[in-house]
């Protein structure tokens, strides 16, 4: 599968093996055959022409995320870690599956207090609460570790029975931690009663949209209070979509634009559907996936597969580096959301086992002195994903040059070919090409020249480094 020359002209190497035709993993054409022309039937992993056993086999082996509570409460009495009275922001609190980071963008100080420490009477608070330490109308930011869909909190404004109309408090929700893209806001004011201050409840919902940052503040108003106090923050979680590389399946790893990925969750779709051959729709079985990047640009994602538990999708070209939000929606509502970190590269290599482990989903190509090429799979043909093993490779006849054609995703954004390096069994090997496969959405190819010193080595791990980021190891074998 020669990847084709890149714009910067750095391909190098003699390989020009056809990109669109590979024998299936059904034993139909697994022995050596001449390349440079169509060979066997299509064998593709993760592109619209790739066979489902490898694409979906990858997904089936990935552990499903645990079900999360739909509502989480922060009351400053029972979270982790325990908060001492007088403790000031910034600090984190974890309740159940969610962590909230409390801070002020102006650097103002908020602290944990209670009626015992302040001498107030605030009957709607449960115990400890957040108290604003100054009179400067400073905002309080709450950043959540995963997307939420609604928030309700109990508040008091420091009117001290001094004005006739209780002060308005405002909450603004943002789609990401940059506070650059608001999804909406809500206001409320408390009512006077037997408490020291007017108290009330403030609720915000984004109508099915997800957000992970809120800012609470008192906007300027004549005769209004400057301080506020907050307790009993209740948020409704967005169902979580956990996204990983469709090649490596490495957890908690930054991803990249123009990359094939797999998202996992619960109740993502009411049915299972696969994209028609040769097509990548942005809506499949009524499900759409969108990625909003760090600049606020939102793009629809091409889809290979949707089901109740998984979605295979493509991170769109042009997605900016930084924090991003992915949302899954049906025609009536958002059904899941997740946080992504986008980097320029995120190298992952496909394995024949369909789980990013074991023998590589790769080809060995021998180039003879007269320029003819022959190939062999590096795995035993006919295997079932999950049970594939290596087939030992020889170095060919005297004068032959042996190359490995590895397939992956998240590689094409590399800064230069010189920023890509590889080892086989710990031995550095030349990288002849690292970039996209023409006509195959998201599929990348890496061509490695195999030194004769690896003859007789037996099983050896192949490891790729792209701009300092390591891939998952995959295995080949030499005799």
What does this structure look like?
With 479 residues, this protein is mostly beta strands. The protein folds into 3 domains: 33-45 and 348-478, no CATH class; 71-237, Jelly Rolls (Sandwich); 242-343, Immunoglobulin-like, CATH 2.60.40. 3% of the residues lie in helices and 41% in strands. The chain has 2 helices and 34 strands. It has helices at residues 52-60, 115-118, and strands at residues 33-34, 71-74, 91-95, 98-103, 110-113, 129-132, 140-157, 168-174, 182-189, 199-205, 211-217, 228-237, 242-245, 255-256, 259-264, 273-274, 283-284, 287-292, 298-300, 303-306, 310-315, 322-329, 334-343, 348-349, 362-367, 373-377, 401-409, 420-424, 427-429, 431-436, 444-450, 458-466, 469-470, 474-478. Strands 2, 3, 4, 5, 6, 7, 8, 9, 10, 11 and 12 form an 11-stranded antiparallel beta sheet that branches. The longest helix has 9 residues, at 52-60. The protein is elongated, with a radius of gyration of 28 Å. Mean pLDDT is 84; it is low at 1-69.
